[in-house]
Amino acid sequence: MNKLTIAAGAVALATAGLGIAQTSTADAGGGRLNFALQRSPGIVAAGCLPYAAARVTVKHDGPVERMNITAWGLPANTEFDTFVIQVPNAPFGVSWYQGDLETNGYGVAHQEYVGRFQQETFAIAPKSAPAPSVHSTPTPDDTTNPPFGPIHTFHVGVWFNSPADAVKAGCPGNTTPFNGEHNAGVQVLNTAQFADTAGPLGTFKP
């Protein structure tokens, strides 16, 4: 059995464990939300990672939700970063870092995140206030915030943790602020099959 066969088997097991088909719509019911992640426009235009995809399942757990992402078709043993975002593509809008997503030797990854992932997911800044400056390069931290009213963030995106890993996979090598050190690579997966103001998390009732 060659490595490609083993990898295909790993993907089959990962997707079968979710018990759902790969679709481009959100299916909310029975306290569970299912939807897909698709390749971002930059990845598609570059012609890299042609088989990259992911499935997302969100479930209520008392006062929080548990969001599980299973991804495949990615480079092996590589780190990625997951964000909840306002709109799926650039300029992304208000974006909230959820955590890491790391692939195994076959390019399959699974991670669970705990937080608020439903119709009440939002950010707000009633007034400007001081903010800590932790990182000065390559994307300096702002030391104050602009005020804004409630902004709902119903989309999900996944970025390369490193521009070097993106280049190694044949993808663009742009540096973006989408990791903890603000030196991430390009976006790989998102929910752009949904309209900007109708992201899948917005279909999930509290």
Description:
By secondary structure, this protein is mainly beta. The chain contains 3 helices and 11 strands, in the order αββαββββββββαβ. Strands 1, 2, 3, 4, 5, 6, 7, 10 and 11 form a 9-stranded antiparallel β-sheet that branches. Strand 3 and strand 4 form a beta hairpin. The chain is globular. It starts with a helix and ends in a 16-residue tail after the last strand. The model is unreliable at 1-10 and 12-23 (pLDDT under 50).
How do the strands and helices of this protein lay out in sequence?
Elements: H1 3-16, E1 27-29, E2 32-39, H2 41-46, E3 53-61, E4 64-72, E5 79-85, E6 95-102, E7 109-115, E8 122-125, E9 148-152, E10 155-160, H3 163-168, E11 187-190
Antiparallel strand pairs: 1-2, 2-3, 2-11, 3-4, 4-7, 5-6, 5-10, 8-9, 10-11
Key structural traits:
disordered N terminus; two-stranded antiparallel ribbon; mainly beta; 9-stranded antiparallel beta sheet; 206 residues; 3 helices
Quaternary structure: single chain
Distance between the termini: 46 Å
Instruction: Please tell me the overall pLDDT.
Output: 90
The counted number of beta strands is: 11
| Largest pleated sheet | 9 strands, antiparallel
Rg over C-alpha atoms, rounded to the nearest angstrom:
17 Å
Low-confidence stretches: 1-10, 12-23
Strand portion = 25-35%
Order of helices and strands: HEEHEEEEEEEEHE
